[in-house]
Amino acid sequence: MSLANEGSLLFVLGWLARILGAISIAVLLLFGIGEPSGPSSITWDQAIGLVFFPCGLIVGLALAWYRELLGGLIAVGSVVCFYVVYEALLHGGWPGWWFMVFAAPGFLHLIHGTFSLRNKPQEQNLQNL
Prior knowledge:
By secondary structure, the chain is mostly helical. The longest helix is centred in the N-terminal third of the chain and has 32 residues, at 3-34. The chain has one domain (3-34, 47-127). The protein is elongated. It has five helices and no strands.
C-alpha cells in the first residue's frame, strides 16, 4: 500500500470512529433520557455497573475526539469492566454482545491512534500520548 493510500485510509478510519462514537453517545443519551423510572429505583450494584456503562463509555468516546488512544482505552476498558462487574455483582450471566456494539468506535479509535503514532515523527509521538 502506498503512503498516500495509507494516509487517506487513516483519515477515513479516524472520521468513521468519530461519527460512530457520536452516534453511540447520542443513542445512549436517548436511552437515559427515555428511561421512565428515576434514579431512586437504581440499586447500588446497578449504580456501580452504570459507572462503567454507559458513563465510562461516553467519557471515553468524548475524550477520544482530543486524545484518541486515551479515550479509546477508557471506552473499551469501561465496557470490559462493565462485563466483569455485571458477572461479579449482578450475577446476571453473560449480558450479550450488544454492549460491545456501542464500544466499537472505541476499538476504531485505538486502531487509528496506534497507526497514526507509527506514521508520525518520534518527537510528536511523545507529545500526543
